[in-house]
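Need residues for this backbone.
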């Protein structure tokens, strides 16, 4: 039996998200701060010699060939002219449509994992460029460092942030990113800010008022979490979060949330757990 390579696919938070305007191609110019969480999905990879990409443990409502994991594997296979294939197992822990970047993170872990497994020796720049074609959030996961992002999210500047503990609540609703970004009430004219001022002032999430209005589950979660700590939406949601100086404080609040609002506690990290694992494998 082939040896499996098992790697994490970490969640991310958007600590702020400002929308500066809409481009001619329909995409939005934005500014955001990404930080990783010590929590996420897990993927395992094993070599196949027949060139086939086979995803196991796939999501029931996502066709095999439409899954970003399969798309990422096939794009890397094609771009590198690699004759090898892979069996891939997904242990899905992050909610879909939660704003935690699960699909993008899975795709990035696939690119980095198969780059290692197939011994392609591609660098991060090349993998990030390939990942951008899969989704605007994929490059930040490929690079694995907390970042200030501009453009549609692809222009990344690495940043060093405090690493607090976060309580992330998961309202039981699937938020449509497309609907949020097409909402006429979405703020699209926030002035561009310098990175330093955002690090000092914290910023806000311009998507939050629209999501709160459209999804009562998210609104209720924010109201509840705000009783304990300043709460904010990540990305276009549905997940909401608050930060704490230590795990004990976050755990105490988590225990007070109702069972109808699932949650988890995880530390924010500037270097993703995926990249720490890959460095360990490389002996660095």
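Answer:
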């Amino acid at each position: 039996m082939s040896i499996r390579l098992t790697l994490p696919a970490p969640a991310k938070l958007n600590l702020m998200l400002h929308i500066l305007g809409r481009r001619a191609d329909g995409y939005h110019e934005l500014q955001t701060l990404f930080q990783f969480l010590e929590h996420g999905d897990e993927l395992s990879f094993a070599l196949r010699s027949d060139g086939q990409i086979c995803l196991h443990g796939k999501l029931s409502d996502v066709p095999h060939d439409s899954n970003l994991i399969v798309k990422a594997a096939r794009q890397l296979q094609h771009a590198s002219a690699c004759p090898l294939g892979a069996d891939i197992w997904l242990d899905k822990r992050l909610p879909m449509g939660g704003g935690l970047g699960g699909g993008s993170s899975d795709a990035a872990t696939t690119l980095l994992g198969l780059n290692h497994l197939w011994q392609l020796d591609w660098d991060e720049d090349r993998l990030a460029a390939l990942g951008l074609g899969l989704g605007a959030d994929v490059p930040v996961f490929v690079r694995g460092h907390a970042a200030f992002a501009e453009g549609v999210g692809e222009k990344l500047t690495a940043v060093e942030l405090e690493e607090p503990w976060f309580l992330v609540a998961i309202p039981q609703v699937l938020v449509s990113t497309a609907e949020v970004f097409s909402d006429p009430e979405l703020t699209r004219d926030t002035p561009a800010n310098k990175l330093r001022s955002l690090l000092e002032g914290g910023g806000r999430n311009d998507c939050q008022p629209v999501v709160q209005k459209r999804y009562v589950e998210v609104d209720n979660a924010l109201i509840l979490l705000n009783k304990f700590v300043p709460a904010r939406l990540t990305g276009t949601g549905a997940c909401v979060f608050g930060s704490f100086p230590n795990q004990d404080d976050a755990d105490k609040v988590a225990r007070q949330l109702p069972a109808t609002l699932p949650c988890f506690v995880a530390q924010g990290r500037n270097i993703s757990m995926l990249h720490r694992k890959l460095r360990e494998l490389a002996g660095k």
